[in-house]
């Protein structure tokens, strides 16, 4: 919408202009929450809005003449932007003029040279006063101080503008009075009126009585605004009826022509050609200058003509793109049609050169929609997914309709904020964990891993054990879990012989709101260690005594004396048992099967065999390192079971054959035999 206010210039600071909330039908209490902003192209903020009441007041007094220069209508344009929802209102302030400027003349004093022989009725152009006010407050009339020789008359140029002329009423006599001092007063039409004075010094001369006259009082020309320096604008021409130097005319710009225009244009002093002298850096389509023609007489006479130059626009301004409002980042679950940015697109060229088309790339989930005049809204056209694309660089291209067209691009950076729309995902459907029994307390078992493509708290995953029981006990008595990294540790040592495997579930949960979670099954397999030595089941000893087996005295070969039976609680090769004879009182009499543990005789019994024998059997598993157990078996050779078993604590072995005495006898006999043989060998040699 649009609303128009009217305010007089120089209105004091704080003065009320209106109530924007009431005028636009907006709830004043929502202005702050909707982040209202006043946007203007002016360098100053002339107005202020009370965020609580919506009252619009003057923030900075306005100088209409400084703001709008010579424009007949002075307007200030503002845009009021509100968010949530996004709304844009236009405010137009019409600044009315007050009579705060007095008429002034470009020079502090004007000099006019008049020949004494001029007849009454001779006319001289007087300077125009300038008043920055407009309308009735501008210059309305001129007055001249009373003088018997001069009077003031107003003249009208071809374009309707008025200018004062000094008219000679009475012939001059230089010998009586060489100088006349007059005061020219300019008055405006304000209430009360204001005026400005300038002294006019008339010097009476007795030479050159004709001023140059232009062919036209007003010259008109049209040039392109990008015309290069030296381009001919127009050629003015004035004639002087005098002869000789008094009739030679030189051209220049009048002192009333602004210095800026005199820098942009130059006039050839002899030919009267007006050319471009620099860059035409003006915003006004019509420029007004006064060209003066002065003769070369000793006391040169002059006249002026108005030069109106129309600047024809060329397409030399590209579109200007301004981001008025930008909402970034936007959530990835934003619905299509969500407004992201408000763009203002202007082209300073008038007409077709200032009309602009605007577009963005078609392969983006966004589109531009025209809003108010010169405004476009950037909105979403599809659903967004931050996990696929987290940000967009949207290039807005604006092209005017000039020939050739000018194009401007501006990049809008839009970030996509995360929404918790993805649950954690484990790296596998299930995890198998293998752990050896007898593990130390706190031993690391495994680390589960789950990923969440969301970011921040939405992607931060924590791990917990789901409640369950293992072998009748709570899972938490067996395991502990690191919430942050998913590592699993043992809280007790596992025993393969009691628990060989179990399973549980780990839950991964993100920190979003609401939180999303996923679960995975972890299978734990406990592997065996060789931690159990073989247990001898048979034969058994009581109170540390030796187990006794009775064998017939005349038992045959391969007689089964006994069978050693053992068991190992370990598994696999740790429970594979082998049997070995560690000691036997008679190694030639007994043998042991390494696989079955059967102890048998290797030959038939003899009457000369000892009645008591003792063997030590070692039962060894195949673990690494292997563990073993031993059993001592006492063997009694008897045909009947005696009432009392003999004591097998002694060795039960026969005396050794090679005792110390026997060794000495054997050595002595060997020495005697060697000496005897050597002697016989010696005798044989001698005889031969």
UniProtKB/TrEMBL annotation:
Pfam families the record matches: Cadherin, Cadherin_2
PROSITE patterns attached to this UniProt entry: CADHERIN_1, CADHERIN_2
Location, primary (coarse class): membrane
Keyword Transferase: no
SUPFAM superfamilies the record matches: Cadherin-like
Compartment(s): Cell membrane
Residues that span the membrane, as ranges: 663-686
Record's keyword annotation contains Cell division: no
GO molecular function: calcium ion binding
Cadherin domain: residues covered: 6-105, 106-214, 215-321, 322-426, 427-536, 561-648
Name of protein: PCDC1 protein
Organism of provenance: Tichodroma muraria
